[in-house]
């Protein structure tokens, strides 16, 4: 019963779980892992294995047994290894057998067997006879469908080193194309071309990566004489990263979210008209429409390429092939066929602070230990009050003045900030896990034709960004000042290490005479100051202006 609720668990032999099978999919490939108990290979269990594979003919078969044979190359099959191979080799999807048990000859071995043109490979790895029980040595197998290649390495997380001898580091060709042998692999695509580079390290940005995906890359260098050289093929797997931020007791903390939630889907634009974006792929109608208690996410489309790269368009609803969006940039006209987009869910109160984690839970509606204050993003002017106050009580996020209604799904928009106000002396820590945005960020800034305008900002970057690297001025989003005493636009920062509520700005920055300056620091160039630190909030105070600009900032790593 321990395994029955696991999505990968598919069944077992007889009355116990000594022999079992799992199902999983990765990288567009479907697998079945069939595991045999030690020294069990009689006709009954082999018939069970045949029956299991007969119902999973479209899955790629990996067999795991305790003792397949000797730790030498080629492996000398044990009785169990030979019996299982002989029985299952008629299955053309049976390509791999893994085993351990034998370690008298350093614990590694392999063999390759072909039957009717179909090859099955066997690998033995057992390190218990090594020093320290093998220092945790483990086999890592990387499947590359684009190259029809499986690469095997042997790594110790204890020593942090790989074994690189012939029995520990190897690869084999294996057809992973959906239509069988002879299908051309996925072509390589250039992600960047850098010219005139100096000797040493060079970098390129790879936009549009998806979460939990494995990618491969290599670099090709050509010198002035036309001589070329290429690096070995490298691979990496994307995933989530973590972030923590201390929240002081009896204090306000301006919080931004430097990570985003994993994308739900990605697609390519087929056409765009008004607020309708038609895509190449298809969805379930209404899939991205929020319905309380049913579909609890609210989504936006982030553009990865094209003239709208970095821009975020809130999704109102969708048909099978069309996204209906709104545009905070005034127009969606810059979207063009071929543009790549990612569909991502907003952070919410319930996903940033699940079950009230990271804050002080309020005992009653009138005794609020922690409040979340959301800045006003609609009203004109400066020094704006919060537009809503939330607190966590009795298992729900609630809004002041709204009774016991749940506000768990209230969105916390990207590239802005909110205030965590602790009304008690207990410090807490905000902890989130998410993904890094590796494409430009396009942050719309509000202005007023009659007054100065505050914008609550939080840069969705997990690394510190200086004023010079922020591209605020170069993007046209931040206007230079004519004189230090006549400041046009201002950037206000706040000190989260000081315990205080209703904080005043700890520093005010402006741009004058081709450099960043700080109020009170004279003509000192403060451009190298690391103002945009992960998780902190700021205010950009725009001067009176009829035009609302967009701050476009690209990654600096």
Layout of SSEs?
Elements: E1 9-12, E2 20-26, E3 29-36, H1 43-54, E4 60-65, H2 79-88, E5 94-99, E6 108-115, E7 118-125, E8 138-144, E9 149-156, E10 161-163, E11 170-173, E12 214-217, E13 220-222, E14 228-230, E15 234-237, E16 241-247, E17 251-255, E18 265-273, E19 276-279, E20 299-303, E21 312-318, E22 322-325, E23 340-345, E24 347-348, H3 349-352, E25 370-375, E26 386-393, E27 396-399, E28 411-412, E29 418-422, E30 428-434, E31 441-444, E32 453-457, E33 490-493, E34 507-512, E35 515-518, E36 538-542, E37 550-553
Parallel strand pairs: 3-4, 4-5, 5-7
Antiparallel strand pairs: 1-2, 2-3, 6-7, 8-9, 9-10, 9-11, 12-15, 13-14, 16-30, 17-29, 18-19, 18-23, 19-22, 20-21, 20-23, 21-22, 24-28, 25-26, 25-29, 26-27, 31-37, 32-36, 33-34, 33-36, 34-35
Please work out how many helical segments DSSP would assign.
3
- Major beta sheet, strand line-up: 1-2-3-4-5-7-6
Largest sheet: 7 strands, mixed
* Proportion of residues in helical segments: under 10%
Radius of gyration from CA coordinates: 29 Å
Helix and strand composition category: mainly beta
Distance between the termini: 48 Å
Strand content: 35-45%
The total of beta strands comes to: 37
Low-confidence region ranges: 180-185
What's the pLDDT, averaged over the residues?
Answer: 89
So what's the overall shape?
elongated
Provide a short characterization of the protein structure.
With about 550 residues, this protein is mainly β.
Pick out its properties.
single chain, mainly beta, seven-stranded mixed β-sheet, six-stranded antiparallel barrel, 37 strands, 5% helix
């Amino acid at each position: 019963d321990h395994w029955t609720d696991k999505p990968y668990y598919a069944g077992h032999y007889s009355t116990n779980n000594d022999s079992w099978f799992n199902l999983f999919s990765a990288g567009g490939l479907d697998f079945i892992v069939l595991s045999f108990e030690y020294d069990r290979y009689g006709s009954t269990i082999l018939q069970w294995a045949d029956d299991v594979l007969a119902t999973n003919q479209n899955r790629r078969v990996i067999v795991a047994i305790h003792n397949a044979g000797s730790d030498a190359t080629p492996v000398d099959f044990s009785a169990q290894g030979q019996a299982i191979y002989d029985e299952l080799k008629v299955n053309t999807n049976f390509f791999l057998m893994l085993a351990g048990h034998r370690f008298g000859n350093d614990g590694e071995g392999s063999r390759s067997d072909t039957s009717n043109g179909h090859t099955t490979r066997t690998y033995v790895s057992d390190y218990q006879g090594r020093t320290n029980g093998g220092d945790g040595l483990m086999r890592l197998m990387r499947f590359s469908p684009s190259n029809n290649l499986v690469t095997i390495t042997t790594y110790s997380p204890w020593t942090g080193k790989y074994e690189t001898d012939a029995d520990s580091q190897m690869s084999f060709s294996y057809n992973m194309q959906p239509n069988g042998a002879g299908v051309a692999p996925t072509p390589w695509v250039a992600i960047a071309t850098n010219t005139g580079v100096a000797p040493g390290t060079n970098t390129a940005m790879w936009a549009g990566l998806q979460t939990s995906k494995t990618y491969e890359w290599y670099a090709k260098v050509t010198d002035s004489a036309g001589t070329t050289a290429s690096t070995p093929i490298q691979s990496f797997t994307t995933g989530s990263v973590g972030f923590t931020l201390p929240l002081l007791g009896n204090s306000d903390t301006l919080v931004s979210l430097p990570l985003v939630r994993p994308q739900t889907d990605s697609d390519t634009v087929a056409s765009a008209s008004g607020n309708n974006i038609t895509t190449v792929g298809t969805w379930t109608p209404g899939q991205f429409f929020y319905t309380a208690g049913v579909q609890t996410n609210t989504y936006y489309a982030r553009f990865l390429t094209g003239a709208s790269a970095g821009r975020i368009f809130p999704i109102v609803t969708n048909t099978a092939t069309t996204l209906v969006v709104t545009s905070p940039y005034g127009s969606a006209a810059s979207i063009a066929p071929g543009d790549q987009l990612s569909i991502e869910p907003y952070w919410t109160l319930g996903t940033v602070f699940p079950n009230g984690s990271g804050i002080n839970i309020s005992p009653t509606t009138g005794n609020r230990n922690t409040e979340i204050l959301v800045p006003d993003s609609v009203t004109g002017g400066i020094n704006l009050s919060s537009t809503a106050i939330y607190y966590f009580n009795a298992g729900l996020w609630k809004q002041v003045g709204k009774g016991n209604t749940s506000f768990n799904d209230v969105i916390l928009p990207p590239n802005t900030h909110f205030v965590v106000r602790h009304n008690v002396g207990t410090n807490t820590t905000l902890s989130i896990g998410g993904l890094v945005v590796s494409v430009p960020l396009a942050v719309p800034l509000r202005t007023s034709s009659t007054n100065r305008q505050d914008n609550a900002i939080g840069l969705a970057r997990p690394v510190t960004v200086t004023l010079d690297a922020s591209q605020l001025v170069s993007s046209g989003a931040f206007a230079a000042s004519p004189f230090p005493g006549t400041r046009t636009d201002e950037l206000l920062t706040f000190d989260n290490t000081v315990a205080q509520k209703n904080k005043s700005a700890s520093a005010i920055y402006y741009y004058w005479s081709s450099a960043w300056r700080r109020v009170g620091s004279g003509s000192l160039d403060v451009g190298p100051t690391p103002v945009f630190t992960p998780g902190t909030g700021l205010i950009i105070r725009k001067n009176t202006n009829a035009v609302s600009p967009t701050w476009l900032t690209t990654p600096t790593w």
